[in-house]
Design a protein that fits this description.
- This protein is an alpha+beta fold.
- It has 3 domains: 175 residues, FAD/NAD(P)-binding domain; 166 residues, D-Amino Acid Oxidase, Chain A, domain 2 (2-Layer Sandwich), CATH 3.30.9; 86 residues, Orthogonal Bundle (Helicase, Ruva Protein, domain 3).
- It contains 16 helices and 18 strands.
- Strands 3, 4, 5, 6, 11, 12, 13, 14, 15 and 16 form a 10-stranded mixed β-sheet that branches.
- α2 runs parallel beside α7 and α2 packs across α10.
- The protein is globular, with a radius of gyration of 22 Å.
Length: 520
């Protein structure tokens, strides 16, 4: 059955379905992964998202598809093994979105060669047939050739290794499209406001269409709570007295022009002065530097980089890339929050496990949380196995390990940005030649992408387009504010809104975007 991605049609389909097999709450990596897992097994699947897909954590990662070199330092070999296997699957199942990247660990003391070299050799060994290339020792000259801006004083050489990189929000949008390809249904801007129970057991949800304020009910054989950093809220909706299971940690990033790190290789500092791992990675012709790891009191949709995080990032850029970025060099600053499952004796969030956790409440609410982008598919498989057993659904083996995602194409066409559309690119290009105009001289996006986002990717607001369908806000906050009126006009024409809607959208977007502009 082919689905329309128009909101009115989706609402009609939800309204005419008596009961879903699996209802997923939350449209980030975990929820989308679980929904694709369920739908690809033939279960009737609905996903509801309160805001937009990947609005919170899942669009704000360090853009790595990785086993996690630092989890080896913590001795968590099981997590690394699983993540390396999943890394291989992500690169195979979505080559238009995930690819190999070389990383270099600079060595400033002789002992760092054996110390990090042995760790990275173990990383290669654990990857086995899923390896992306062997790590190797580089001379000082070879490091400076690949990383011309890296601090050369006391540099002894370095170790090169390979890992994966991707575009996180585009991957989420692609999972949403894949869900529809498998007869599943998803709706954004549809917060769950209550749980339906029969004889003390959850049998569905009450939700709201945020655009019209209309309430609706959905019956389901099992409900999965995949709301990430907000999972305790839904757990309390089920059991008001339930205790919090999450410790929320914040990671901030800054984006710099490519001249701060020319070339194709990323820089990895395995241990900063306060024991963190820091990356500087080429991404869409910019350089992303991150991340921090600081506990925060509460989960937020738009967290702001704290003063000490900003200070940490800028001082480390100066230390390792030779110059302190001026405020105008910093094109964007953004923060994301991680849902870490608490272990009572761990005080530092950097030490808390990145493993995922599945919980089942007395009323059979199934919660999955923790984990990380790279293991999203395995998380989906685990939770759907539990969901199927809980709901008495027919036992169907998982199909996602080799499931090619929407737009899969063997040889990417176009530049690094256009490639994210995969096999959809010719359809996008054919919409209207007049819309091939760039959105802004400093951004790699075209006007036609706004129309595509509204028609085929469920973009409803200016911020959806600027943050997650294109990555304009993450690549250059000031340029995205300049481009906002043009995008609002194109979106309004597509969605049938008037000029007053456009003005409100631009004002709302500017309020968000100002937080991405660096201010000392």
């Amino acid at each position: 059955m082919s689905h329309s991605l128009q909101r009115a049609d989706i609402l009609r389909e939800i309204g005419s379905t008596d009961e879903w097999d699996v209802l997923v709450v939350g449209g980030g990596a975990t929820g989308l992964g679980a929904a694709v897992e369920a739908a690809s097994r033939g279960y009737r699947t609905l996903l509801l998202e309160a805001r937009d897909f990947a609005k919170a954590t899942s669009s704000r990662s360090t853009k790595l598809v990785h086993g996690g070199v630092r989890y080896l330092q913590q001795g968590n070999v099981k997590l690394v093994l699983e993540a390396l296997r999943e890394r291989g699957r992500m690169l195979r199942n979505a080559p238009h979105l995930a690819h190999r990247r070389s990383f270099i660990v600079p060595a400033y003391a002789w002992w760092e060669f054996p110390f990090y070299g042995v760790g990275l050799t173990l990383y290669d060994v654990l990857a086995g047939s899923e390896g992306l290339g062997r790590s190797r020792i580089l001379s000082k000259d070879a490091v400076l050739k690949k990383l011309p801006t890296v601090k050369s004083q006391d540099l002894e050489g370095g170790i090169l290794y390979y890992d994966g990189q991707f575009d996180d929000a585009r991957f989420a949008v692609t999972l949403m499209r894949t869900l529809f390809d498998h007869s599943g249904v998803a709706l954004n801007y549809a917060p769950v406001t209550g749980l339906l129970k029969r004889n003390g057991v959850i049998c569905g949800v009450v939700a709201e269409d945020r655009e019209t304020g209309t309430r609706f009910e959905c019956q389901a054989r099992v409900v999965i709570n995949a709301t990430g950093i907000f999972c305790d809220d839904l757990r309390r909706m089920d059991e008001p007295a339930s205790s919090k299971i999450l410790a929320v940690s914040q990671g901030s990033h800054v984006v710099l022009p490519p001249e701060f790190l020319p070339g194709d290789s990323a820089l990895m500092i395995p241990r900063t002065s306060d024991g963190r791992v820091l990356f500087a990675i080429p991404w869409h012709n910019r350089v992303v530097v991150g991340t921090t790891d600081d506990p925060v009191a509460q989960a937020e949709y738009e967290p702001r980089a704290m003063q000490d995080e900003r200070q940490f990032l800028v001082s480390h850029i100066e230390r390792y890339l030779g110059r302190r970025p001026a405020p105008q060099d910093i094109l964007s600053v953004w923060s994301g929050q991680r849902p870490l499952v608490k272990q009572s004796d761990k005080s530092s969030t950097a030490a808390i496990s990145r493993d995922h956790t599945v919980l089942i409440s007395k009323s059979k609410l199934l919660t999955i949380t923790g984990g990380k982008w790279t293991t999203y598919r395995k998380m989906g498989e685990d939770v759907v196995n539990r969901a199927a057993a809980l709901a008495g659904l027919p036992q169907v083996p998982s199909k996602t390990a080799d499931l090619q995602l929407h737009g899969w194409t063997e040889n990417g066409t176009g530049n690094e940005w256009q490639q994210v559309y995969g096999s959809d690119l010719p359809l996008l290009s054919a919409i209207n030649a007049a819309l091939a105009e760039p959105l802004h001289p400093r951004l790699p996006f075209q006007q036609v992408e706004v129309v595509w986002a509204a028609r085929h990717e469920m973009a409803r607001t200016l911020e959806d387009v600027m943050s997650r369908r294109t990555r304009a806000l993450f690549l250059d906050a000031r340029a995205s504010m300049d481009a906002a009126p043009v995008v609002a006009r194109l979106l309004a024409e597509e969605l049938g809104h008037d000029e007053s809607w456009q003005r409100k959208q631009v004002a709302a977007f500017d309020t968000v975007a100002e937080q991405y502009v660096w201010s000392d």
